[in-house]
């Protein structure tokens, strides 16, 4: 059985209050504190977090709802969220909605009922009804990427400007035709695809800036069929594919290798997000860094500030993006 605070106090010849102060970083003489911490360590003392929560009326827990754990973007985010929360004394309770609108709401409700002090989401639900649902929980919420409303804080990069910068970079390389690959647009009427819609808006704005460049949007899940058609029949002009996600670019790279195409000799390719797996891919994918770790870290900091502040105003926080010029353009 684990040693208790009272047993530590007895072994050290001090009061229970002194032990608690030492364990919680309070004011205790150096020698006494060192003695208490050593006894606690030698006897594998573990704090009773449930009792502490009941005493202080706080759980020190954050709920995190993620879409899936197959996409490296979400895996990177979760890793950063967990580290940042732990650094600030919070525990994370991570749940996966598996891209289900109904399940996402059920999980958020469950986290609120389990007394999470705040909830982080990259929402796939949208609209006034979902906004009202989140606000009715009376629990601090921060969105990562996909915005729900101005009444709920969102941390993101300026996706529209980032995409315009990506197009500018591709044009600077002499490409005459650019195809924007954005499969999530197929579901934009039903799901929250705010991030990808902003990227599409940036691409369409860029189309007006470069009238001499042939530009086209492919917004469906079966995009590889159109890529194949373009590569077999329409490579008369220097062509580049700009993908609204590195995972889509990697799918094109895999297909190209199988079909015998060389990148960037036969066509150019650019991704979005700079997921960590790119370090193992050759050729090195040119992409847009959307500051995955920075966004996740800032979201945690902002959520905790919301939790611990008596007065808080929701906001939209934009972090910097960066064009990473590598080997595929």
Question: Which key terms come to mind for this protein?
Answer:
single chain, 329 residues, alpha/beta, four-stranded parallel sheet, 45% helix
What's the quick description here?
By secondary structure, the protein is α/β, with parallel strands linked by helices. The protein has 12 helices and 12 strands.
Helical proportion, percent range: 40-55%
Number of strands: 12
Summed up, the domain count is 3
**Main sheet record:** 6 strands, parallel
The level-1 CATH class of the largest domain: Alpha Beta
CATH topology of the largest domain: Rossmann fold
Overall pLDDT metric: 92
How do the helices and strands follow one another from N- to C-terminus?
HHHHEHEHEHEEHEHEHEHEEHEE
Regions with little confidence, pLDDT below 50 for 5+ residues? none
CATH-scheme architecture of the largest domain:
3-Layer(aba) Sandwich
Helix/strand-derived category reads alpha/beta
As laid out across the biggest beta sheet, the strand order is: 2-1-3-4-5-11
Keywords: DNA-binding, Transcription, Transcription regulation
Protein name: Cryptic asc operon repressor
Domain HTH lacI-type: 3-56
InterPro entries: HTH_LacI (IPR000843), LacI/GalR-like_sensor (IPR046335), Lambda_DNA-bd_dom_sf (IPR010982), Peripla_BP_I (IPR028082)
């Amino acid at each position: 059985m684990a040693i208790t605070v009272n047993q530590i106090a007895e072994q050290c010849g001090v009061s229970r209050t002194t032990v608690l102060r030492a364990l919680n970083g309070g004011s205790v003489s150096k020698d006494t504190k060192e003695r208490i911490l050593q006894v606690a360590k030698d006897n594998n003392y573990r704090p009773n977090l449930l009792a502490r929560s009941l005493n202080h009326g706080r759980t020190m827990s954050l709920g995190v709802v993620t879409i899936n754990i197959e996409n490296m973007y979400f895996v990177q985010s979760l890793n950063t969220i967990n580290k940042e929360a732990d650094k600030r004394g919070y525990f994370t309770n991570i749940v996966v909605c598996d891209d289900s609108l109904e399940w996402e709401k059920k999980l958020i409700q469950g986290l609120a009922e389990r007394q999470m002090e705040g909830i982080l989401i990259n929402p796939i639900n949208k609209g006034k009804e979902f906004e009202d649902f989140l606000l009715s929980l009376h629990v601090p919420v921060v969105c990562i990427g996909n915005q729900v409303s101005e009444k709920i804080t969102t941390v993101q990069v300026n996706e529209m400007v980032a995409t315009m910068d990506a197009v500018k970079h591709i044009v600077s390389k002499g490409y005459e035709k650019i195809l924007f690959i954005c499969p999530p647009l197929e579901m934009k009427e039903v799901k929250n695809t705010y991030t990808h819609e902003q990227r599409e808006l940036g691409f369409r704005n860029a189309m007006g800036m470069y009238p001499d460049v042939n530009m086209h949007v492919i917004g469906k899940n079966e995009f590889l069929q159109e890529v194949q058609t373009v590569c077999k029949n329409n490579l008369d002009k220097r062509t580049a594919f700009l993908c609204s996600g590195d995972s889509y670019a990697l799918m094109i790279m895999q297909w190209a290798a199988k079909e015998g195409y060389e990148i960037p000799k036969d066509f150019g390719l650019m991704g979005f997000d700079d997921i960590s797996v790119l370090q193992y891919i050759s050729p090195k994918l040119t992409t847009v860094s959307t500051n995955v770790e920075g966004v996740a870290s800032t979201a945690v900091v902002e959520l905790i500030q919301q939790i611990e502040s008596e007065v808080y105003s929701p906001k939209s926080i934009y972090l910097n993006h960066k064009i990473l010029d590598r080997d595929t353009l």
